[in-house]
Structure formats: C-alpha cells, structure tokens
Amino acid sequence: MTDKPTVVLVHGFWGGAAHWSKVIVELNKRGFTSLHAVENPLTSLTDDAERTRTMIRQIEGPVVLVGHSYGGAVITEAGDLPNVAALVYVAAFAPDADESPGQITQEKPPAAFENIAPDSDGYLWVKQDKFHESFCQDLPADEALVMAVTQKAPLGSTFADTVTAPAWRTKPAWYQISTADRMLHPDNQRRMAQRMNPRATVELDTSHASLASQPTPVTDLITAAATDVTG
Q1: Tens-place pLDDT, residues 118-175
Q2: Torsion over CA of 180, 184, 123 and 136, rounded to 10 degrees?
Q3: Nearest to 136 by CA among 215, 29, 40, 37
Q4: Burial, 216: exposed, middle or buried (Cβ in 10 Å; 0-12, 13-18, 19+)?
Q5: Predicted TM-score (pTM) of this structure
Q6: Residue in 183, 180, 111 with CA at minimum distance from that of residue 147
C-alpha cells in the first residue's frame, strides 16, 4: 500500500500519452505506483474532458491531475470531479470561463505559430521539418524526429472550444512556465499562472516540451503537489 495519490497525466496537441514517458519513469522511481496517462482524441474539448473524466472516475482516492499544453485546458474542464485534489499545469493553457486556447494564443502569438498548418480535413499539424525548432528545440534531433513523425494533430475547431467552469478557481494549482517556449508564449503562461494564484510557480529555461527535456524538475513540481494535498 502507498499513501501517495494517483497521478493522471494529460497530453496536449501534437502529442500523445507517450510524451510523458520520462516523467512516468521518474514518478515511479519516487514511489508513485498508481499512474495513468490519458490518450485523448483531440477532437473537441468536450470529448477530451469526458475521456479524462472517464479515467478519473475509475480511480479510488485522491488524484493529482497534470496537463501539458492543451492538456491544461482539459484538466481545467475535467478537474471538477470530487476526488481531484490538485491540478498541475506544465507549460499549459489554463483558460477562464468562456475562454478558449485559440483566444489566448491570438493575444500573444508564439514564435512558431506560422509553423502550424491545416490539412484538407481540418486537422492542424506542426510542419515536420519545423517541429524540432518549434516544439522541442532542446531535445536531441532523433527524439524530435520521432515526435514530429508521430505527432497527433488536433481538429482545428478544438482551438475555439471554451471552458465552462474552470477547476483552478476551486482546486489548488501548481504551474510550470517554459521561458523558451515557441508554441505557447511564455508571457501568456505567466499571465495564466498569476491569475490562478498557484501554490507554486516554477520557471524553467526550456522548450514547450519541458515534460521531455526537463522531466526531473517537472516531476519535482508534481511531487510537491502530491505531498501538499496528502499531508
């Protein structure tokens, strides 16, 4: 038995659950034995939030809900379940009520915004030859290549989906800012972090893919949230 809470990890746009691989290994080393990573369809915020809620409902006991990138919008929408004890945002969107990731992005477009391109079916992709410099410039080229080729494109309409009741207004939150982020402007991250009044904010000199390039400090933040909510 363990007194540690369950950790549920939620990926963002252009990635899947495997983007959490290094964090998963690090959490396991620290004694977190109940770990789950949601595989979201990225078809709408409603779909993704319900997929996440479905997983959370299967878990007994407290949950630390962690979101990267667009996954932050998902945990903001899905984090209202009673056993969600903490929210951790990793270079993530944290929209307020009636606010969308697209709206936040337009306020301060990120450096690599022009490297996102739609296909004929309405899915948005990061151009493969621009993926390394855009998403994960501090990862080795081989890792970036795999991410680029296996990227999971969202429906473009998902960018416009708005949050209804933001969970960070009622749940304790933690936030990690990526100061060299080219996919989600660092100033947008700072603004979202500040307004949620998190219990801790950590700034890392890293790309958007901080969960892969800086898994140890990201895991430190998740551990801090887990320790706080379980005493």
Answers
A1: 999 999 999 999 999 999 999 999 999 999 999 999 999 999 999 999 999 999 999 9
A2: 20
A3: 215
A4: exposed
A5: 0.97
A6: 183
